[in-house]
Amino acid sequence: MIGLVKAEVRKLFTTRLWWIMLLVMLVLIGVNLTFITAFAGVTNEAGGGAALPARDTAEWVQTAWSSGSGGSIFVMILGVVMITSEYRYQTVTGTFLTTPRRRRVIAAKLITGALVGLLFAVVALVVVAAVVIPATLLSGGELSLSESRIPQVSLGILVSTSLYGLFGIGLGALVRNQIAGIVGAVVWAYVIESIFTAIPVLHPVGKWLPGGAAQALMSIDVDTGLGRPEWLPAWGGALVLIGYGLLFAVVASATTVRRDIT
Fold first, then answer.
1. CA-CA to 168 of 20 to 30 Å: which in 27, 82, 85, 181?
2. Which interval of the chain is the signal sequence (predicted)?
């Protein structure tokens, strides 16, 4: 199994796609952090409160730190490409001839997807820390790990980003078409999940989606003007994410083992 995982890692890291996705992720996180930093504590003209907490508060640290979760979609895309490229470039036949037990191949891809997600999450957290910590201290705030929930948010980012690699592999195994898989991943992350997790009135549904479960695991509890979120408890979010991970792993295995590869 270790040999198969190494082979999958080599396949991925000999392409340019992984570092392109990494750079795009960093740009997106940078834009989010710029927005969160620039508009921190700014009150609206209608006389309401600030949409974002001030930079010297634990709530702002929590909000800014959670921007590290922006890498999930790119890991999901890599997961889609990891399996659909085998069909697109007709390398799947050679792969399964070399390793006839298809479940071992899928297991290796799932492990590789999770590891890549973990790598992206670590890079994202390093960048976020490099921005948030100085911004908080220079604004006169104190960096409290407990009040700002940095450990919980970081754990949520690590787990959810890793699992999104599995989601991508499961989706890719299901559709097998690379373009359809990537479009499906983008629509899911930026349209469906964004709607159900951004609007509090939709949280009764959104909290059961992977994005809502990730928010619950990160223990995000900041009112940005739309009302406080109603997520599951952190342990509930973890169970939902694990459930989705297992579901997509089963989908990837079942669809690949039973289908004709020609």
1. 27
2. none
Computed from CA positions of residues 116, 118, 121, 123, in that sequence, does the dihedral angle turn out positive or negative? negative
**Domain boundaries in the chain?**
2-25+55-257
- pLDDT value at 51 more than 90: no
Contact 43, 144 (CB under 8 A): no
Q: pLDDT per residue over 132-146, tens digit each?
A: 999 888 888 778 787
Q: What are the Cα distances from residue 42, in Å, to 22, 37, 55, 220, 226? A: 31, 10, 10, 20, 16
For residue 29, name the pLDDT band (cuts at 50, 70, 90): very high
Radius of gyration of the chain (CA): 20
Backbone angle region of 41, left / alpha / beta, with phi > 0 → left and psi within -120 to 50 → alpha: left
Instruction: Tell me how far the alpha carbon of residue 162 is from its chain's centroid.
Output: 7
Among residues 50, 80, 56, the alpha carbon closest in space to that of 171 is found at: 80
CA distance 58 to 78: 34
Region 244-262: mean pLDDT is: 72
Go through 65-85 and write b for each residue having 16 or more CB atoms within 10 A of its CB, e for each that does not: bbbbbbbbbbbbbbbbbbbbb
Distance of CA 190 to the CA centre of its chain: 12
The per-residue pLDDT of the chain, averaged, comes to 81
Structure tokens at 110: 């799932």
Q: How confident is the model at residue 118 (pLDDT cuts 50, 70, 90)?
A: very high
Of 125, 123, 217, the residue nearest 133 (C-alpha): 125
Nearest to 5, CA basis, from 117, 151, 109, 88: 109
